[in-house]
Amino acid sequence: MKSSGIAYVLWCAGLFGGCGIHRIYLGKYGTGLLYLFTFGLFGIGQFIDLFRIPGMVERENLKEQLRQGATVNVNIHGAAGAANVVVEHRQTAQAVPPPLPQTKEEPETGKALEAKILRLARNFHGRLTPLELAANSSLSLEEADNVLENIVRRGYANMEVSDAGSIVYEFPGFLELNPPKRNELDEYETI
Fold this sequence. Notes:
Strand content: 5-15%
Distance between the termini: 44 Å
Number of helices: 8
Number of domains: 2
Oligomer: single chain
Radius of gyration: 26 Å
Strand order of the largest sheet: 3-5-4
Largest sheet: 3 strands, antiparallel
Structural class: alpha+beta
Number of strands: 5
Low-confidence stretches: 75-82, 89-96, 184-191
Shape: elongated
């Protein structure tokens, strides 16, 4: 495990002409040598790294843990998009949660699947994407796309392409005149 304290001590070597040694310590050999030969990109890069060292140490430690067989769970929910990173080692019994009981989820078909699709279409104000359907059902993305295309063929929905280029299936019976934009929806509701 790399230490921020050691990285800061090596950063201080830049004050005496050893710029970039902290980068070499953190596994950034190419930029470390560049800093060494250019005096820390003429001092600018060296100064910026003073503030970047904690993040560089954290990334290098995460890489090392992944090399040793750890799993990484990233939670991107939180204030201002902050990311929380949790590292679990497979070797330790405490870090690995107990296995869930194996229950094979039956694939949704027929009337139950159509009812779920219609509830989702209503909840999403008449517009539904294959990604939303897959996230809220036991269907894969490909299966969700095929099911929605089948609904279009039967005449119950229309396929549209959004300005961003994604495919959106519109259900006319659930469309609102002024629906909220996708980014205004607080969270997806699981049915």
